[in-house]
Amino acid sequence: MISNVVRIALLGCGTVGASLLELLEKQAAQIAKRQALELEVAAIAVSDLAKQRPEVVPTELLSDNAAEVVSRDDIDVVVELMGGTNPTLDLVLSALKAGKPVVTANKELLARHGEQVFKAAAGTGVEVHFEAAVAGGIPLIRPLQVSLAGEKIHTIMGIVNGTTNFILTQMAEHAVSYEVALAEAQKLGYAERDPTADVEGHDAAAKAAILAAIASDSPVGLADVHCEGISHLRLDDLEAAQKLGFVVKLLAVIDLREGEMMIRVHPALLPAAHPLASVRDAFNAVFVEGEAVGELMFYGPGAGGSPTASAVLGDLIEAAREVRDGRSQGAGSTEVDSGEDFAPSSRRPSPRRPSQSRPAPQAAGRKLRILPIEELTTCYYLSVDVIDRPGVLSMVSGVFGRHKVSIRWMEQDGLGQDARLIFLTHLAVEKNMQAAVAELRTLEVVRQVNTLMKVMGGQ
Ligand SMILES: NC(=O)c1ccc[n+]([C@@H]2O[C@H](COP(=O)([O-])OP(=O)(O)OC[C@H]3O[C@@H](n4cnc5c(N)ncnc54)[C@H](OP(=O)(O)O)[C@@H]3O)[C@@H](O)[C@H]2O)c1
């Protein structure tokens, strides 16, 4: 049987890198049979050579000089699983400039430097594959880029951070505080010791920026994403939402209109019957609405070594095919007549063909106008602690009225010092809602404005 050896440099061999090695070992025969490819890991860059590694890691391939690994002549494809942007950006750029396709799971790199990365790739006609950078094991990027290439996408709305979804599920289902739910997430390895990137919405914002760039064919940066996290949410809010028939989720939302879009990450109330409301624990799901196709939902494990490695392997096979078919330069795959096994023999570069790369997301079109969050029109949930005395309600509702916010539903919870008013509004403009909240804070009868959340889906 003729097979093509494609040589891979793995940058990073932590959770995802080690899982990829395991998967490559398990799937080697099937990949050879289906794809006529032998994916040979030729070098692995790590930061600490002395670290104890799982058995699957061939320690003789380890190097602590990632730049040297990337520049080796015999490397066809670079798989970046280091994370961060420094020195990752330089390593990825040098791989691309050398004509080597790159596979990465690094949302931070693409959200911060996507434009530069995709321009470098376009310069040498190679691809950057990044299926695992958003929603881990869920095939989402390729469906958006390929299957939905002709679709006019109106909305993408998703749960793209498993850690926060786990925390919110714990709070809602076990009636525990944010702090207790976070501690549980940390104990189970869902949350980092420093959970800021997850709980303040930064991780979801990076993913939203990537999805927005693909959906809009325009460059999107992190600064274009409005971002609110979940660390201020209280159990009371989730319980009040539940009583009203809602579930609280941290959502990434991209709304596209003619020539403009809004990209935002924030907690929101979703009707319990909404498909995203039933996504529990660390799972991710992304809801896409297109003009012709209607509503689609992608669901699955958004993180974890094995699911993420599955997405990386799919990308790696695609990158290896590019090298084999001469669509990208690499070092040129080696054809081997291997019989049952795959003993590498002569290296014979495949003939080069013009790049068949899809439009690179962040480098594709002109930048769309980014709508500021102040222009959002949606319904709101607001909880306010007040002094329990006659006339308070009319003072509070007067504030809403002055700012053109109309109340759809209101309930008083508790009495005396514990009096709390909970409101649901009709559609209102964010700018007006924020102005109403600011004025409420100045009222002598308002002890505290607690939580303001947007209400999504089926207003
Ligand atoms: N974990 C997930 O579930 C998941 C899901 C989706 C996407 N991702 C993304 O996948 C990437 C990898 O995540 P991970 O969880 O596997 O990370 P990880 O466990 O922390 O592994 C990082 C690896 O990179 C190596 N490394 C770090 N800095 C380096 C440097 N300067 N030079 C050479 N090697 C360096 C580390 O070396 P040592 O081993 O020597 O420390 C380690 O092997 C990240 O971009 C992450 O956002 C992860």
Q: Which term fits the overall shape? A: elongated
> Could you give the count of β-strands?
19
What CATH first level of the largest domain would be assigned?
A: Alpha Beta
CATH structural architecture of the largest domain: 3-Layer(aba) Sandwich
User: What distance lies between the first and last C-alpha atoms, to the nearest angstrom?
Assistant: 60 Å
Radius of gyration: 25 Å
Largest sheet: 12 strands, mixed
CATH topology of the largest domain: Rossmann fold
> What is the name of the CATH superfamily of the largest domain?
NAD(P)-binding Rossmann-like Domain
What would you note in describing this structure?
The protein has 459 residues and is of the alpha/beta class. The chain folds into three domains: 2-136 and 304-363, NAD(P)-binding Rossmann-like Domain (Rossmann fold, 3-Layer(aba) Sandwich); 147-299, Dihydrodipicolinate Reductase, domain 2 (2-Layer Sandwich), CATH 3.30.360; 373-455, ACT domain (Alpha-Beta Plaits, 2-Layer Sandwich). Helix content is 34%, strand content 26%. It has 13 helices and 19 strands. The chain has helices spanning 15-35, 66-71, 88-97, 107-124, 141-147, 162-174, 178-187, 196-199, 202-216, 235-243, 305-324, 392-402, 430-442; strands at residues 2-11, 37-45, 62-63, 77-80, 102-104, 128-129, 153-159, 225-227, 246-257, 260-271, 283-290, 294-301, 334-337, 369-370, 377-386, 407-413, 420-425, 428-429, 446-455. The strands form two sheets. Strands 7, 8, 9, 10, 11, 12, 14, 15, 16, 17, 18 and 19 form a twelve-stranded mixed beta sheet that branches. Strand 9 (246-257) and strand 10 (260-271) form a beta hairpin. Helix 12 packs antiparallel against helix 13 (430-442). 46% of the residues are buried. The structure holds NADP nicotinamide-adenine-dinucleotide phosphate (NAP). Residues 12-17, 45-48, 51, 66, 81-83, 87, 105-107, 132, 136, 303-304, 308 line the site of NADP nicotinamide-adenine-dinucleotide phosphate (NAP). NADP nicotinamide-adenine-dinucleotide phosphate (NAP) is lined by residues 12-17, 45-48, 51, 66, 81-83, 87, 105-107, 132, 136, 303-304, 308.
